[in-house]
Specification:
The complex is a heterodimer of chains A (about 500) and B (about 425).
Chain A: E1 2-4, H1 12-22, E2 26-31, H2 40-46, E3 55-57, H3 62-65, H4 69-84, E4 88-93, H5 95-100, H6 104-110, E5 117-119, H7 129-144, E6 157-161, H8 170-184, E7 187-192, H9 198-202, E8 209-212, H10 215-229, H11 241-255, H12 259-263, H13 270-275, E9 286-291, H14 293-306, E10 310-316, H15 322-331, E11 337-338, H16 342-352, E12 356-359, H17 361-370, E13 374-376, H18 395-407, H19 413-421, H20 461-467, H21 472-488, H22 496-506
Parallel strand pairs in A: 2-3, 2-4, 4-5, 6-7, 6-8, 9-10, 9-12, 10-11, 12-13
Chain B: E1 17-21, H1 33-39, E2 43-49, H2 51-61, E3 71-75, H3 78-82, H4 87-101, E4 107-112, H5 114-118, H6 123-134, E5 139-144, H7 154-163, E6 178-181, H8 186-198, E7 204-207, E8 223-226, H9 232-240, E9 244-245, H10 253-267, H11 272-297, E10 301-304, H12 311-322, E11 325-331, H13 336-345, E12 351-356, H14 358-368, E13 372-375, H15 377-385, E14 390-392, H16 395-398, H17 407-423
Parallel strand pairs in B: 1-12, 2-3, 2-4, 4-5, 6-7, 6-8, 8-9, 10-11, 10-13, 11-12, 13-14
Classes of the chains: A alpha/beta (about 500), B alpha/beta (about 425).
């Protein structure tokens, strides 16, 4: 039993819904108790979809349990087929139905529907949402794709695998990467699961290779296609300028294209923005990164190589991809944080005192609570991260978007410089009232001067006074650092000397 | 004063009730935690369930999940299923850890879910055991919010029914006169308290109270009013304690609120003049506040999908006080005993439906082409995309809507989507 307040991932049948909702002409019949339909609103509200997810729930109740829940499932499946006439169906159980052990696969088979019915085994008490999405997509591909022995007619054709419903920026990543591939002269055969029909899935083997955009959802299917349809797949996720260039090189080699084709792919503003002098202040900013494995790994590379940050913490909630995250963290001299317990993440952020947090919706709130700037880089996200405007993470435009969204929460260089210059200014400190409030605004009362001699927490009065001269937005950090410095050295009374010793120590 | 509530018809058989079974697009009772934990300020709600339960509450609670909330889920994993014998020890460990982290908690609810009900986890016994361990600091109670047993607001019913046996019995034969059952917003509760006081009823208990120690006393002879229509089990539990129901409509809108206070006045032989002195100003203010919304909504046809059991009182409100025309009023359960007065006020021709087959109900809704559809968030945007104007129903549960001062706000909840559609060009 695990005490949980917040969960980074839903149960695996939510993953299956993300595949079903992404596709057209596919219907999901889910054996589930009344109430599990709550999942519909993730799609209709967070992603603002204009149609209900193609999911029929049996919504059994307690009074059904004594009777024949299996019959209920069969009726629901038969009715769903009659009403929606899908090209294929997937069937399975949610966590409660898993316990009552009706067999959705067997029951649906007995109905002998005229379309393929793909049974899903999603162990709710062991696995989670991303695994459920990956397994569902894999089962659909396995059921519908006929293994191929010969080579594809067009060596430059590929499929794009991975984008789903409720995916963080999947809509725009797909547009960005499709454009990039087309500029290179690569033909896109099928995109799946997003907007694909079961008939489209059947055409996947016609391409010569696969572009796997999101390993969390499509790597398993990609590996099966590699083995059975002689389709190699990309292993580089094109988030960030360097990663996009590496991705282009990999695609060019898979498609048999030369370097000229790769050059047509485009360019990003990030490298110049990052070199421009206003970005100098970004140097060595201490950043903490947490999210799904794909986005966390990509963010770590961008942070270090493209923005000149120092990565001080790296972690993921994706246990399936813990290994590459551990390896990447080790290369940075860090120990990866692999957890789905947000309290552990919060403790780590509090301990590290980073200057920027890159994470999920949850890290956004942790950062807010602890007073750190933050940008969202990964699911789970809320409605504001399904924006109306074009905002990919992948490719060259994605790099532009990332530069803006990570740098905005930090103070721009000039602003930071000015704050330092005027930190003692009478109207430019934390006690001054906001200027937009006009003359009517009253200043908060001055706090009583610290009493002479040692103050609480072992601060000498003069040291406390000196501390007040440090700009308010870094004062908390200076106080904590100094206190830690003093504690580690057994210094009972913090003097001005201690304050500057600590400053010297931590600025090394 | 205008008290237009007619006596209920001898039977409600002249109102056609459509009973349906099929896919139900509704929340389970766990969702009640989202507002109950705000109401009882020193209570903690621990769901014993699956990751789905945790995910549901997180999705329903939205941004509240981040404010160090007083609810959580003990997620059952495969080891618990394999070794059911040790599940008690596991639960004790989780509860200990929780109470160590939150020493401010005085009341802990173990909330049953579909998985815990299906594996027949005895949470009642667990609650008794844990209550002994943590007594007197923390009282541990139990109820079920599972989807197989409860729909949305029935979670509150189950919670309050569990609270009733633990309400104090007053000493020395004193009988507390009046109890109001049903979680109300604090602002509405305070307004009601003031009106009751003006009527001469100074000792009014509200269930639930704002803290575990302040739960109202109940004795045989205590009369109770329901503030919410979904409290079937709570009413039964109150009656087992000897409390006596005051039949009344629900305090929504000017007429509903006045009729609700009149029922109390009649039960306590409070003279008409005193009732009027306490309620007249509020009644007039409420009618005034509803006026602009009535202008926008009069004659408009409205369709309610089932959600909270508030649908029938709300349909009565929009018909009687805003001049709307209910086409179909869906409710997850029809508690005839508590709704007799409300059903009696519905215009002839209104279809009342109980239960749901969502696809068929959507077909009926499309065919009826109502001007406004009240439905859950799973249906709202898809219906908007089809050209319907919708009001999402959960807001009617989370927003203060009871009483005179909220009548205008309640009317606005219905008029705003229509207003918006007009502003955006129809």
């Amino acid at each position: 039993m695990q005490l949980t307040l917040w969960t980074y991932e839903g149960p695996p049948h939510i993953g299956a819904m993300r595949i079903a909702t992404a596709m057209d002409g596919l219907h999901y019949v889910l054996h589930a108790p009344q109430g599990d339909t709550y999942a519909d609103l993730l799609f209709t509200m967070i992603e603002r979809r204009n149609a209900r997810p193609p999911v029929t729930y049996t919504t059994f109740q307690a009074r059904d349990l004594g009777g024949d829940t299996a019959e209920l499932f069969k009726t629901a499946a038969a009715d769903a087929y009659e009403r929606f006439k899908p090209q294929a169906m997937i069937v399975g159980a949610s966590c409660t139905a898993e316990l009552i052990q009706d067999d959705p696969g067997g029951l649906a088979k007995a109905l002998a529907l005229p379309v393929p019915v793909i049974p899903l085994e999603l162990p709710s008490y062991q696995k989670k949402e991303n695994w459920g999405a990956s397994e569902t997509f894999y089962q659909i591909v396995r059921a519908l794709c006929v293994p191929r022995r010969d080579a594809a007619a067009n060596p430059r054709s590929c499929n794009i695998l991975g984008p789903t419903a409720l995916g963080f920026r999947h809509r725009d990543d797909l547009a960005e990467i499709s454009r990039l591939l087309e500029r290179m002269g690569v033909t896109i055969n099928v995109v799946a699961p997003l907007d694909a029909t079961p008939d489209d899935i059947r055409r996947i083997p016609e391409a010569s290779f696969n572009v796997v955009l999101y390993p969390e959802t499509a790597e398993t299917a990609g590996r099966w296609l590699e083995r059975n349809c002689k389709q190699p797949m990309t292993s580089i996720v094109p988030i960030g300028v360097s990663a996009t260039r590496d991705f282009i090189a990999q695609v060019a080699s898979l498609a048999g294209l030369d370097a000229d084709a790769a050059d047509k792919a485009g360019a990003s503003r990030l490298p110049w923005y990052s070199r421009s002098v206003d970005s100098t202040y970004l140097t060595g900013k201490r950043v903490f990164i947490f999210g799904d494995a794909t986005h966390a790994l990509a963010a770590a590379r961008i942070a270090r190589e493209e923005l000149g940050f120092e990565v001080v913490g790296l972690g993921t909630y994706s246990r399936e991809f813990a290994r590459p995250v551990r390896e990447a963290a080790a290369r940075l001299g860090l120990e990866a944080l692999i957890t789905d317990d947000y309290l552990e993440v919060e403790a780590k952020v509090a301990e590290l005192q980073p200057e920027l947090v890159l994470g999920t919706q949850m890290e956004r709130h942790i950062a807010k609570k602890l007073g750190f700037p933050c940008a969202v880089i990964s699911a789970p996200v809320h409605v504001q991260d399904f924006p109306a405007r074009y905002s990919p993470q992948m490719g060259f435009e994605g790099a532009n978007v990332i530069f803006d969204s990570w740098v905005h929460p930090l103070m721009m260089g000039l602003e930071e410089h000015l704050l330092h210059m005027f930190r003692g200014d009478f109207e430019f400190n934390d006690k001054a009232a906001a200027s937009h409030l006009g003359a009517g605004a009253t200043k908060p009362a001055e706090p009583a001067p610290p009493p002479p001699g040692p103050t609480q927490g072992g601060w000498a009065a003069e040291a406390e006074k000196e501390l007040q001269k440090i700009p308010f937005f870094v004062r908390g950090k200076a106080r904590r650092n100094t206190e830690r410095f003093a504690a580690e050295r057994g210094i009972a009374l913090i003097t001005i000397e201690t304050l500057y010793d600590a400053k010297a120590h931590y600025s090394r | 004063m205008n008290l237009p509530f007619r006596a209920p018809p001898a039977s409600c058989n002249d109102i056609p009730v459509l009973r349906e079974r099929g896919q139900r697009e509704v929340f389970c009772g766990l969702t009640g935690i989202v507002w109950l934990h705000r109401k009882i300020q020193d209570a903690f709600f621990l769901v014993v369930g699956s990751r789905t339960c945790a995910h549901l509450i997180q999705s329903a609670a939205g941004v509240m999940i981040f404010a160090e909330p007083r609810f959580a889920t003990a997620i059952i994993d495969e080891r618990d299923l394999a070794g059911l014998s040790e599940i008690d020890a596991e639960l004790d460990r989780v509860v200990n850890r929780l109470l160590e982290r939150r020493p401010d908690i005085k009341m802990l609810f173990l909330v049953g879910s579909c998985p815990s009900e299906v594996i027949k986890l005895d949470l009642k016994r667990a609650a008794a055991r844990l209550s002994q361990i943590h007594s007197p600091k923390v009282r541990v109670l139990n109820y079920s919010g599972s989807g197989i047993e409860t729909t949305f607001t029935q979670g509150e019913d189950a919670c309050l029914a569990a609270l009733v046996p633990f309400s104090p019995l007053p000493a020395n034969g004193y009988v507390p006169p009046l109890l109001v059952a049903g979680a109300l917003s604090d602002v509405a509760e305070d307004q009601f308290r003031r009106i009751f006081a003006e009527m001469g009823l100074t000792d009014v208990g509200f269930l639930p109270a704002r803290s575990a120690a302040a739960m109202p006393a109940i004795a045989p002879g205590t009369k109770y009013l329901l503030a919410q229509p979904f409290l079937n089990d709570t009413a039964r539990a109150l009656e087992e304690r000897g409390a006596v129901h005051i039949p009344a409509p629900f305090p929504l809108g000017a007429e509903g609120t006045t009729a609700w206070f009149k029922a109390a006045a009649d039960a306590f032989d409070i003279p008409e003049a005193k009732l009027r002195a306490a309620t007249e100003a509020g009644h007039i203010r409420a009618r005034l506040a509803m006026e602009p919304h009535r202008a926008m909504l009069e004659g408009k046809r409205i369709f309610f999908f089932p959600d909270s059991q508030l649908e029938i009182p709300l349909a009565r409100f929009v018909a009687q006080e805003l001049g709307m025309e209910p086409v179909e009023v869906g409710t997850p359960y029809l508690q005839r005993a508590h709704l007799a007065q409300e059903i009696g006020q519905l215009p002839a021709g209104t279809v009342v439906s109980e239960g749901q087959d969502v696809e068929k109900q959507l077909d009926r809704c499309r065919a009826a082409k109502p001007d406004l559809v009240v439905c859950g968030l799973g249906l709202a945007n898809p219906l908007e995309a089809e050209g319907f104007t919708t009001k999402w129903s959960i807001e009617l549960v989370f927003t203060p809507i009871h009483g005179y001062e909220q009548a205008g706000d309640l009317a606005r909840l219905f008029s705003r989507p229509m207003d918006r559609r007009t502003r955006l060009g129809g």
